[in-house]
Amino acid sequence: MTSESVRRELRELIDEQEGMRPLVDELLRAAERGDGTAERIADRWLRLWRSSLQAHCRDEEARLVLWIPGSPLLDRLHSEHGQLRTLSRELEVAPSSGTISKIAALLRDHLDWERDELLPAVADSMGVSLA
């Protein structure tokens, strides 16, 4: 894999993550309202989770284990993806504002961590610039 293709894939991951920011905000607002919006936003989250985000997590894990094998950063990546999986299963069983809040907070922190720490570390280890 060329450094340009790695750089392109990392940029795509960053763009995908930035595209998630409005959803995080919407999840947080829905959880705060507690007006029946929780069920609608839970349904929206679960459709998005099943249609793309679950696969995104698997793909990200598969790629990054090749790019930074043995890195302790992978432990956090797997842990947080696992928490999203668990919370999504909880939401399927019983939609609640509390679970939506947990997903939103975890996702916000996870996206920030990936942008600020994980992806720059991957770029550095692969000898590419994200600029």
Short structural description:
This protein is an all-alpha fold and 131 residues long.
In DSSP terms (H or I, runs of 4 or more residues), the helix count works out at 4
Most strands sheet: none
Percentage of residues assigned to helices: over 70%
Shape descriptor reads elongated
Measured by DSSP, the beta-strand proportion falls in under 5%
Q: Which structural class best describes the helix and strand composition?
A: mainly alpha
**How far apart, in Å, are the first and last alpha carbons?**
19 Å
What is the succession of H and E elements?
Answer: HHHH
Which radius of gyration do the C-alpha atoms yield? 16 Å
The overall average pLDDT, rounded, is 88
Total discrete domains:
1
Low-confidence stretches: none
Strand segment tally: 0
Textual characterization of the structure:
With 131 residues, the chain is an all-alpha fold. The chain has one domain. 86% of the residues lie in helices and 0% in strands. The protein contains four helices and no strands. Helix 1 runs antiparallel to helix 2, helix 1 packs antiparallel against helix 4 (97-126) and helix 3 (73-93) runs antiparallel to helix 4 (97-126).
